[in-house]
Design brief:
This protein is mainly alpha-helical and about 425 residues long. The chain has 18 helices and 7 strands. It folds into 3 domains: about 260 residues, Growth Hormone, Chain: A; about 50 residues, no CATH class; about 55 residues, no CATH class. Strand 3 and strand 4 form a beta hairpin. Keywords: Membrane, Transmembrane, Transmembrane helix. It holds the Pfam family Sugar_tr. It is found in: Membrane.
Amino acid sequence: MSALNPGSPPQISRPLSIDECICRAGGFGRFQWMMMLYAPIARQGVSFFVYSLSFLELVPRLECLVEGTSVFEVCKKADICTEEGLIDRNLWRIDFTDSKSFHNWMTDLELFCYSDFMIGLLGSIMFAGFALSGIGLKQADRFGRKKTALSGAIIAAASASILFFWRNLYAKYIGLFILGLSLYKNFAIYILGMEVVPKKYQVYTSSWLLSSESLLAMIPAAVFLLAGGSNMQHFLLAGLVLSFTAIPLTMMVPESPKYLFEKKCFVELRKNLAYIARFNGVSMGDYQIEGEALIPNSLENLEQNGNEGSVLTNDNPGYINKSGDISDTNLGDSNNLEKFSQSLIEKDSTKEFSVWQELKNKRTIMNLSSAIVIFCVVSFNYYMISFYLKYKGIWHRSLVITFSSTLLQVLSLTLQEMCHQASSRN
């Protein structure tokens, strides 16, 4: 028997699941590698603002003029403040030669005399926006992963612009709130990245997408600090550029095949699978998708023969109806074709979603437990350590945080997969 042409997939008579369709479109090919590059870039723009908050609020080394002399000595911010505000600018200065002194929001906006509450609000208000971002993420099931990610990318770019260009404390509050609100796009991009790869690669894909959030934000920060960078605007510029870069990149990627499958949009699904297959250098060939009313070559036949097409009925999947009149539906129109396909599928009963029922599922519990562990680790690393270690050994700390978070994320996902495989064998 001659070897099969790798560009021509084997003929399968039965309908294919969505995972089999993705495998048929090239499995983990060039397109999937491209998505693994796109996802971190599109997600990381806001990270340069979020993870640098502790540096942006850091009080630099202050020096005050000793009365009656021309000598400056180290002092605290309380020494340069009065009830009216800052004392004469000639009586104090910032020592930018110190490793803990940055050109940041404290120095640019001269926030030295603001209360701790006003300064702490910079970090807290972002979480207020983040708490509401779930509303945006919910739209991923309604409008699609791509549109949700794109809307979030536009909002994130707007917030990055406010934070970078607008030199006002209250503008920073607005920018950070909007930034927190836009974080749903990171989850939408994560879901999109996971849903374009076959199931057998999803553990590795998830490990990369989660770990890259640490690597692509914290390592540049460590390099910036190690190189002696002191102007935080230079660092934030990278975040601004990435935030705007995410918009055209997201517009270029196709919609999630699994989302289109769930929504029964088989015409668009076939177009997306064909695009992925071409990108991967393979051919989809003739195939049928589970739940699809039309046989593989029906679209092609309909274009050639007008209303004459081959349609599978729900009652008899093997029966081919070649008549030109099917319930008075003009199948030559792709919109009518899609409606006809969906009308047959709507007869299938759908289980009503129940939170309590889901919590009885062992895999759901494992996923939830892993998510809680990862979130706690990331929160501890990025938000508590960075504020309370007082920046002793700054670049060392950045690298430790990066790799500890990455390691724990990978280990938790690996453990989850091992548990799943063990439960599957039982």
